[in-house]
Amino acid sequence: MLTSLSFIFLLGLAMAAVCQKVRLPRIIGMLVTGILLGPYVLGLLDDKILSVSADLRQMALIIILLKAGLSLDLADLKKVGRPAILMSFLPASMEILAFILFSPTLFHFSFAEAALMGSVLAAVSPAVVVPRMVHLIEQKYGTQKSIPQLIMAGASCDDVFIIVLFSTFMTMVQGGEMKLTNLIQIPVSILSGIAFGILVGYGLAMFFEKAYQRKHYVRNSTKVIVILGISFMLVSLETWCSPWLPFSGLLAVTAMAATLKMKSTVFVSKRLSEKFGKLWIAAEVILFVLVGAAVDLRYTLTAGPVALVMIFVALIFRAAGVLLCLIKTPIQGKERWFCVTAYMPKATVQAAIGGVALGMGLACGQMILSVAVIAILITAPVGAIGIDCTYQHWLTQEKNDCQ
Q1: Which of 34, 104, 208, 280 is the most exposed place for a label (fewest CB within 10 A)?
Q2: What is the mean pLDDT of the chain?
């Protein structure tokens, strides 16, 4: 396992540096590293690493969501309002609609299988999008109109919406019935996750404040460990609560971090954000190398040009959904096209659930996984490049008061 970890870190960082040198996003190098090291090419990764790959990817995702929460300004979110709510479900719904309309013809699927494929492909990747939006907030690009905050908030809820729909459509494909209670789980899981996250964040802030008042100063490094431990517990709580209460652990983590920022001093929240930013350097490598390792190139060859056509059509529907969300907002012109670009990348959710249908022995499983893999390889780098290359030209940088 130690040898595999050394390959992941050293080769992942080396390939990321090469890509950065030629002005490509670092994640491309990490994805390629994972594909090469994975079991379907060179097979250099230990089976023990691959067996816990999903857990390691989730830990990395938790770290970047904590970083995102500590960078969110709730006052900015209030300014965003309606578009943030629409962005959490409308673009994904439009993309699923595209799969329902076209994939029965292209792949000879039933409508239930088409909806299942759409639910796998429709989620945006917070692991690609969130770090870039955090960077834009720090550099104050688009912050005057809360554009990065809008995209971050929408992307966080988007995944919850998609995962609940995925479980619903999976039941339909397996011969079950679509129940109204399954759809009700979506807003309940979002609201319960946010509410519990706020409660925990408030409690943590009070605990740290009381410790400081009693001169039992808690080091920021210790705070990071405590916050990580609680975050892991919140995500685990999602599974424990599932029989009784729909609950989004990832949203709870983000809400906890945002509340902690709001209730802590600016200095403390800034230091915590910096420390989680440093942790993300290692977590990013683990996440994307292991996502790449999950890619089976044999399946991508079976999908062929038809998959490319379907992905392209679905992205057009998704873009229309984003533009609908931004109607009657101060976001105009190139800023709207930036939002469309930023809502394109797919990676983490597709890597996590792309192979579930195949593992369940469903006839549509192999094709769903193939299209998911191609979508990762195309949209993750294209979306990341699009964000990196356009934000300075399409967004306005907010000037500091002292300038």
Answers
A1: 104
A2: 85
